[in-house]
Design brief:
Length: 353
């Protein structure tokens, strides 16, 4: 006998069926497209992620196409979306599924969870939407909706909070149509029960919403404070030679922007003036490789590039030289390289490139 659905679940599904957005991965049960959309939309709003989804599905219409691509091609398409480990995991998993699983995704939650880059949320989304497996998704949208409607002040980033919200999400899940329910609660959180200034006056849950009726919407969900933001000072040396070459280095160490390209970098503990830069040991070592004609600062005001746990305070130094050795990069081809958005913005604005 089917379980009796809570009123919350019924109202949410009815709202969704009448108000859902027409998105290109909706109505599909091919796990490749659902997986691709979920990986792209991690840490990303739909409006920002949708163009990337369209680019990826056009370039790689099947998982075999994605598996056969080079990492450089994948990173280039991903450029500007951030959190580049997602792109590397995406490519790794595509190759694994193509070569080890005969191009087929694992058919259940437990199998999906073993894929690199796939966590509880993504595995639940794919399993429920593609295989009708009754496993609930829990993401920022779900935390927000449930904490407000039910009035739960457990920190969502604590071990007890994570456990309780997972249990609640599973409790309210419709086992007959789990994919529809999961998409409904994510859609509602993304469009209605938003972090700031939610539309409570016209909300379908305003009568039963504890947060609305106790004037505590802005206080929920509760989240433990993060560690202090780290500040890093980046000094990029933009080499320009008379024969129209520059230098790009690939970041191979683990950390931000792994495998992406950038100009030669000198990282310091504080902001540098030109005198300090020229006397810096790394610049001195670098200058021995070239006959430097001039060094000028491109941006008087440092560019502050904000990442989740760090701020990169960045200066671009234009270094003119006569020639660059054979490993130089032609300026005409620089836009072909996958670079961080910080470098991409500079390249777009700098007239000499």
């Amino acid at each position: 006998m089917p379980k009796k659905l809570p009123l919350f679940t019924k109202k949410l599904i009815i709202w969704y069926l009448h108000n859902k957005r027409d998105l290109p991965w909706r109505g599909k049960n091919d796990p490749y497209f659902i997986w691709l959309s979920e990986i792209i939309l991690q840490q990303t709003r739909v409006a920002q992620g949708l163009p990337y989804y369209l680019k990826f599905t056009k370039a790689f219409p099947t998982i075999k196409d994605l598996a056969m691509a080079t990492e450089a091609e994948v990173l280039k398409l991903w450029q500007g979306l951030g959190y580049y480990s997602r792109a590397r995991n995406l490519h790794h998993t595509a190759k694994y599924i193509h070569s080890e699983l005969n191009g087929r995704f694992p058919p259940d939650f437990k199998g999906l969870l073993k894929l690199k880059g796939v966590g509880d949320y993504t595995a639940s989304a794919i399993a429920s939407i593609c295989y009708n497996e009754p496993t609930a998704v829990v993401d920022g949208n779900v935390y927000r909706v449930l904490s407000r409607v039910l009035g739960i002040d457990l920190p969502i980033n604590s071990s007890s909070g994570i456990r309780v919200f997972k249990e609640l999400a599973q409790l309210y899940l419709d086992p007959e149509q789990p994919g529809t329910y999961n998409q409904a609660i994510m859609e509602f959180g993304a469009r209605y029960c938003v972090p700031k200034n939610p539309e409570c006056g016209t909300c379908i849950f305003k009568e039963e919403c504890v947060a609305f009726n106790t004037n505590s919407v802005s206080e929920l969900p509760v989240k433990l404070k993060k560690a202090a933001v780290r500040k890093r000072h980046f000094n990029y040396l933009v080499i320009l030679s008379e024969d129209d070459k520059t230098i790009l280095n690939q970041r191979t160490k683990k950390g931000i922007w792994q495998q992406l390209y950038e100009f030669p970098l000198i990282e310091t503990s504080e902001e540098l003036a030109i005198e300090s830069l020229l006397s810096h040991r790394d610049f001195q070592s670098f200058s021995k490789k070239f006959e430097i004609a001039s060094v000028t600062l491109y941006n008087e005001q440092p560019v502050v590039h904000k990442l989740s746990h760090q701020h990169l305070i960045t200066k671009f130094w234009i270094v003119e030289t006569n020639t660059i050795a054979c490993d130089g990069t032609p300026i005409s081809s620089i836009k072909e390289y996958a670079v961080p958005v910080l470098i991409e913005n500079f390249i777009s604005d700098f007239p000499a490139i």
